[in-house]
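B., you asked whether I could sanity-check this one before it goes into the benchmark set. Here's the sequence:
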Amino acid sequence: MLGTDSHTTMINGLGVLGWGVGGIEAEAAMLGRSMTMMIPEVVGFRLAGSLRPGATATDLVLTVTQMLRKKGVVGKFVEYFGPGVASLPVADRATLGNMSPEYGATVGFFPVDDQTLAYLRLTGRNESQVKLIEAYCKAQGLFNSATAPEPKFSDTLELDLSSVVPSLAGPRRPQDRVALTSAKSDFRRELAKEFDGHPSVDPTAIADWIDEGGQVVSSEEAAAFDKKLGHIKNKVEVASDEGRYALTHGSIVIAAITSCTNTSNPSVMLAAGILAKKAVARGLTIKPWVKTSLAPGSKVVTQYLKRAGLTESLEKLRFNLVGYGCTTCIGNSGPIAEAIAGAVKQGNLVACAILSGNRNFEGRINPVVRFNYLASPPLVVAYAIAGTIDIDLQKQPLGTGSDGAHVFLRDIWPSQEEVAAAATSSVHASMFASEYAGVFEGDERWQSLKVPAGNLFRWEPDSLYVKAPPFFDGVTAKVGEFSDIAGARVLAVLGDSVTTDHISPAGSIGPDSPAGKYLIEHGVHPKDFNSYGARRGNHEVMMRGTFANIRLKNLMVPGVEGGFTIHLPDSEKMTIFEASERYQKENVPLIVIAGKEYGTGSSRDWAAKGTLLLGVRAAIAENFERIHRSNLIGMGVLALEFKPGQSRHTLGLTGREVFSISGMKGGIKPHQTLKVRAELDGKATEFEVTLRVDTPEEVEYIRHGGILPYVLRDLLSA
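And here's what the prediction gave me:
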């Protein structure tokens, strides 16, 4: 099965092979094209043992993500096997499969076994269907059991599940796992990097502060030590309806139980509810500066939390139901209270978010937040009570109970037995049957939508949400010829792990951004901007939002964050969109230079569509993530890789050069070597790159200028 969401991979937890593709490939498939791919390498991941008490499926997936990113599995299939597989219920397996895009694999596959059958029964499948699946899989040799021989792989990893410990991941990438015991010191280490070289910070005091060393024994000495830390100890007083309080670096302003799969896993959701119930019983509350939300991945979650008697406790801690599915995880947290946002800006504070989602990329969650951490739902609740990341939850109290005594995480953490008992008593097959019986019918709002007559979509010229895109403009029946690129300028020089969120953000639209100015010019008030994700049907908004992430670091404008660049040769600083407009008027082709893992993250087709509309002809990177590479090729943008051992660093590229790319006249072939020449101040640097066109079909996409013109010409000639 192929899906247009990168997290289609959750179905591999059921033993159904499937993965996400870009919307561009999906559009072609809807028009009758087949999907071609290289035969992938399969990496075996052996699991042994079982999770220890206190460790959750989220902790497991963060551990696996760290291991597989280190291993390098982009474009590969990962298959889980070994005796530990039997100890994982399907909900945990789906959590692992769901995280495949974050660890880079195409899929994270589990075999069908007794756990699979148990899940099918739990979710309301009829017994005859379950028995048919069992019989078929056994007849085909696809059913896993304790006596089945272990598969053979060319490459393997191994993990003892009992070694998994409570963990977070952050502050910028899902693979940056840190054990809960080290979370405080790791936060401080990352914070120190943010203010490295700050004139108020004494670097000799940083190490002691990170490790909480030193011999501070009096208030005078403490004050003197804080003075050495300068801006790192900054705090801003806030007056609000909830009272007065101080915000500091590490203050958590967003705590969200959110995500498609973590919030559909009964074990972690019930654990969050039990922890909340115990916290309320002890008299603990959420800090007033924390914006909380609960967004389950399924309506069934609402039913079993209520049946278990946990909804009221979550609501008392302000974890109220806000919707289902993607919310904070994709940047739809909504605005932070003005007083809090103003204080963060005034104090240049590193505010934090903690969420149970899959992605914590820079600028994705909320523009007010600098550090984002992934954690299990119960840890999200715990940190919301603490109100800060700058705390050791293993040693320091979460707060003071109603009896005046300190309350520690260990005092309210649910046991495995408590979670199991809640699941047994509250999660029933009838819930799934009732919720999903009419899933394809829709509610009254869906049913009441007016459907225009006719076979063609009726464009509304005045709509600022859906506009006719320009991808077919100028397309003729005649196919163009392959040609080299000459006189190209660099639009952006980017580092490692640049995500599709950096390239095409999905969250809030800033009023001073090119997209925001466009909407204001068309009569839209900032409060009605909505998000880039909601406006994805309007190419005018989306191309202005390309490379507009507030945390993007274009190395052509050092020390500046956001969608800025310089226009060459005059070196005038401007937004990337403004530079693109000027270059296109000058008929100057553009390229982007990047490092490792270019395009990691969401299967966001606008990261490629917007790139094309900005006039970019090629992206040169050390390597590409699977879906983004495919999307670039699908839009007719060349994906070029530096040869092994080479990069912009080794070649001394700055982005100020004039580039030419040759070797394409007369035709191209998969993985062809092309020559690049970069000239600056009379000096030339020449190097070779690999054209990441992987199949003959993709050669045709490039020849036609992308999948869409290719399919259009094919339909016209039929």
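One thing to flag: The longest helix spans residues 266-281. Otherwise nothing jumped out at me.
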